[in-house]
Amino acid sequence: MSHRRYLPLNHKWRKDKNSFDGTVEMRLPPKSFSGKDILSQVQDLEGIILNYSLSNIQLVEKCFGPQRHDHVFGHGGGVRPKDVTGPIASKQELHHENVTLREKMNNMESEFKAFKELMLKNLPPNVQVTASTSNTIEG
Q1: Taking burial as the number of CB atoms within 10 A of a residue's CB, which of 25, 45, 114, 136 is the most buried?
Q2: Euclidean distance between CA atoms 20 and 107, whole angstroms
């Protein structure tokens, strides 16, 4: 299969016979499936136990049988374990997590600042901190 198939229809390489296999690529790219499309296709399957250590292709083959090179199911996205293991976090949950992480970062920055001030206060008298950058200590 020519991978030029995945290029836009008006791409110059689709018509370039000399640089490739001597053919002009006229086929349309195969349909891509979103995670929701695949979930709707596999929701009725029973008896399949998902293994998180499976690669994408192994997961697809476990659900849909062996794949051939001329017809690969879900090419360009495929099934990821997170697509079939549960709901995706809502915007509200993601926002809450973002706010929480931002607060933790602010706390860490203030602790670092306090630690830095304590270290600078306890430096021996013969050590000088240059004014140009507070990260450079000379002694």
Answers
A1: 25
A2: 58
pTM beyond cutoff 0.90: no
Q: Which amino acid is at 75?
A: H
Name the nearest CA neighbour of 78 among 100, 54, 106. Answer: 54
Which pair of tokens denotes residue 111? Answer: 């602790």
- From the centroid of its chain, how far is CA 98? 18
The residue whose two tokens read 């790219």 is 29
Tokens of 100: 């929480």
Phi, psi values for residue 107, rounded to 5°: -65, -45
The DSSP letter of residue 7 is S
Question: How many angstroms separate the CA atoms of 53 and 38, rounded?
Answer: 19
DSSP, residue by residue, 29-57: PPPP--HHHHHHHHTT--SPPP-TT--HH
What does the alpha-carbon distance between residue 118 and residue 49 come to, in Å, rounded to a whole number? Answer: 55
End-to-end Cα, the chain, rounded Å: 67
Distance CA 71, CA 30 (A): 9
Amino acid (one-letter) located at 83: D
Task: Retrieve residue 73's tokens.
Answer: 């199911």
